[in-house]
């Protein structure tokens, strides 16, 4: 989830804890340490990541990628994950709506 050679740090751990807490209204949300960051899962299927620096990303496809791009998000490496816009991260209802889209599109 991080850049090669980066180590997991407290920012990543805090971000993973915060996002799973904010998404707790969605049954089946969990986080797992992976590659210097965290994978964010719904019912054991990954739909989000937290990189080693603590930045959060949701999985995108052709149906929701433009939503992320319009808000100024950037892609994580070459992976199909885009950064969650700050205005979405701070609005729990909006964050849950965006997470549900990422989960639905990930099926």
UniProtKB/TrEMBL annotation:
Record-annotated TfoX N-terminal domain positions: 22-105
Database matches in InterPro entries: TfoX_N
Top-level taxon of the source organism: Bacteria
Protein name: TfoX/Sxy family protein
Gene source species: Agaribacillus aureus
